[in-house]
Design a protein that fits this description.
387 residues; alpha/beta; Rossmann fold; Alpha-Beta Plaits; seven-stranded parallel β-sheet
């Protein structure tokens, strides 16, 4: 029986992927094999010695101490693309809100007073101040072409927009899913200089922190609409405020209210709604539950942020998985220990990612506790388990 601890409310659609005859799931549970969470901050949490996996029902993992977990041989999973449609739709709403001044116009209408005839006169006199512009023919710059960025870019093409994308780390598989009409920007500044709208879809790391700052204001196309449904720190709020005052920035739409932004003219802040749909929560929970289950039951790895991608079909044998430092002769030492235990290897797969390596081995007999202990004692081995 596997034990799963939930640190946040996880959609029932996901929890149903964990059969009750094999999994015990609770928010308060001792000695968990895996943890499922959404936004809970794990950085100050004491990590259980039994923990094998952490599953984030969402894309961002800033709330998870990945480096610390990696040192303990614990896999961390996320769900890239599961909430992509929800965020895509919110970006579209943000573009329309920003270019059509919808929130300001709505607020104007709500403040109207008098009888209907008087209100009609006020509308005719005041509507010109909310005139905006349309999307077709405008240029959208997309920073980050992962699952969400690709969806946004493809949507904008279908709306008749010109789209410029920037992502030096885009994969071949990702490029295949991107419309051929999307143009490639060779730098962030080149994208900023040409875009009427700029939307961010990148994680918050040192390279992306404050991508919009005082210096970048100088290269932004005048009258740009900025959209940030990724991470708060990607944009320097003071720079945005200054840019709006100077007219360089037409509007800013984001998912991160603050004292500076929440009542700022030409700024629309939303309460972190990017993935807040029933469908997105169900998709994220289902995906992460499936991934954690496959790892616990089969040792396979998909959508891990710290382990390599690994899939090996089960044979009739008995499976062993080993997490170790990515250094020479680890596979040799593990294989030798197995041979000395008079076990035969039926199938084996070894892959590495950065400082970590991961090996899945199918054998003809059940690995004994003494073999597990012998492999654990190999210098550089972080975790071993019989599956």
């Amino acid at each position: 029986m596997f034990k799963i601890q939930t640190l946040n409310n996880i959609s029932v659609a996901g929890l149903e992927r964990l059969p009750r005859d094999q999994y015990e799931v609770a928010s308060e549970i001792g000695h968990p094999d895996a943890i499922l969470l959404r936004s809970f901050d794990m950085h100050a949490m004491q990590i259980p010695s039994t923990l094998k996996a952490v599953g984030r029902a969402g894309a961002g993992t800033n709330n998870i101490p990945i480096a610390n977990l990696s040192k303990q041989g614990i896999a961390v999973f996320n769900t890239p693309g599961a909430n992509a449609n929800a965020v895509k739709e919110l970006v579209l709403a943000g573009m329309l809100i920003g270019c059509r001044n919808i929130c300001a116009a709505w607020d104007f209408s709500r403040q109207l007073q008098g009888d209907d005839a008087s209100i009609h006169k006020q509308v005719e006199a005041g509507k010109k101040q909310f005139a905006g512009f349309e999307l077709p023919g405008r240029t959208l710059g997309v920073i980050g072409l992962g699952a969400i960025g690709r969806n946004v870019a493809n949507m904008a093409i279908e709306l008749g927009m010109r789209v410029i994308g920037y992502d030096p780390g885009i994969t071949v598989e990702g490029a295949w899913q991107l419309s051929s009409s999307v143009e490639k920007a060779h730098s962030v500044d080149a994208l900023f200089a040409k875009s009427d709208f700029v939307t961010f879809h990148v994680p918050l790391i040192d390279a992306t922190r404050k991508m919009i700052n005082a210096e970048r204001l100088k290269v932004l196309k005048k009258g740009v609409v900025l959209l940030n449904f990724a991470r708060e720190g990607i944009v320097d709020e003071q720079a945005v405020s200054d840019g709006i005052q100077s007219g360089q920035i037409y509007a800013y739409v984001c998912d991160f209210p603050s004292n500076l932004m929440k009542n700022h003219p030409k700024v629309i802040t939303l309460p972190h709604l990017g993935a807040s749909t029933v469908e997105a929560e169900d998709n994220c929970a289902s995906m992460v539950a499936n991934q954690v289950r496959d790892y616990l039951e089969n040792g396979n790895i998909k959508n891990s942020v710290n382990f390599p991608e690994v899939h090996m079909d089960r044979t009739e044998g008995y499976r062993l998985s080993v997490v170790n430092a990515n250094v020479p002769n680890m596979v040799g030492q593990i294989s030798t220990a197995i041979a000395q235990a008079n076990l035969n290897i039926i199938d084996m797969l070894n892959k590495s990612r950065g400082d970590l390596a991961y090996t899945v081995i199918d054998m003809n007999k059940t690995p004994t506790d003494s073999l597990l202990q012998q492999i654990k004692q190999i210098t550089g081995v972080l975790a071993v388990r019989a599956i």
